[in-house]
Amino acid sequence: MRHLKAKSDELAGKAKEAAGKVTGDERLEDEGKVDQAQGQAKEVVGDAKDKVGDAVEKMKKIFSKSNRQ
C-alpha cells in the first residue's frame, strides 16, 4: 500500500509538472518536481522499512532456534 501512495505522488507530480510546462506556470512546474521527489523519497524510505523488518524477522527466527536448543 505504501508503494502505491509513493507512486501516486510521483505520477501526480509528473502531471503537475507537465501542466506547468504547458501553461507556462513555473510555480506549478516546480511543485510537480517537489511532489515527484517526495514520492521517490517515500519509496526509498518504504524499501528501507521493509528491509529492516525482514532483518528483524530473521533475527527473531535465529534467536528462537537458539533458545530451543
Series of H and E elements: HH
Radius of gyration: 20 Å
Q: What integer is the average pLDDT?
A: 91
Find the count of extended strands (DSSP E, 2+ residues): 0
Low-confidence stretches: none
Apparent shape: rod-shaped
Distance between the termini: 39 Å
- Biggest sheet details: none
What this model shows, in words?
The chain is rod-shaped, with a radius of gyration of 20 Å. 94% of the residues lie in helices and 0% in strands. Helix 1 (2-23) runs antiparallel to helix 2. The mean pLDDT is 91. The chain has helices spanning 2-23, 26-68.
Key terms for this structure?
mainly alpha; 69 residues; rod-shaped
Secondary structure layout:
Elements: H1 2-23, H2 26-68
Helix pairs in contact: 1-2
Brief overview, please?
By secondary structure, the chain is an all-alpha fold. The chain has two helices and no strands.
